[in-house]
Amino acid sequence: MLPNIRIVLVQTYHPGNIGASARAMKTMGLTDLVLVNPRRFPDPEASRLAAGAEDVVDGARVVSHLEEAVDDCVQVIGASARLRSLPRPHFDEPAEMADALVANAADPVALVFGRERFGLTNDEIRHCSHQVSIPANPDYGVLNLSQAVQVLAYEVFRAWRQRPGSGLHAPRPARDRRPTREQLGHFHDHLARVMHASGFITQPHARTEEQLQALFDRAEPSRKELSLLRGLLSSLEQGLDAD
């Protein structure tokens, strides 16, 4: 279960924060670290601040884009301190987020953290299925990157520890497995093609597509249900071609 829970750090500026985050992960049993386009890595400062978690740093995978880090994940939760206009499902409490993440961790899942100075961009949030915020002092709610990783990693570890013998935290049966972000991306591309071909959308309309993406993120369809929807879209496409 825990090996399927991935921590993703996007464009980390200070290499020491990579090491400190790795240390925060290891104390909570997490080892899967992916770095998206870090400013400096590998770097001695990352290893120094890991303080016993050098194996997590050494095993970190480096990718160029967020999609590469999360395409195989069935749930991707972006940590964000700011309210956003994007209609992504949002966890106001880290404990609720952790319960949901652990429940889906029979397959790969991810927690995504942004840059030290300004977090995740709206475009990066679009690659997430959910958002989570850490409640803090409204007058000074500033958390260091590794502190944020520690808080959410602790909640995940707590949820995992409470899982044995609890039907509430049992993983989904195989027939109810959630699709990966890559599979959902193919579905949304297919849906967009049909909407344009049918005349439902006559010009690029990113807001409509974003709202539909958020709708399916909230609905959390299973892989079987997504396959059914893809079949429906294919049937509609054939009808449009025949016309």
From TrEMBL:
Alphabetical list of NCBIfam families matching this protein: rRNA_methyl_1
Main localization, broad class: cytoplasm
MF annotations from Gene Ontology: methyltransferase activity
An annotated GO BP: methylation
Record family assignment: Belongs to the class IV-like SAM-binding methyltransferase superfamily. RNA methyltransferase TrmH family.
Protein name: tRNA (cytidine/uridine-2'-O-)-methyltransferase TrmJ
Organism, as annotated: Halomonas koreensis
Subcellular location: Cytoplasm
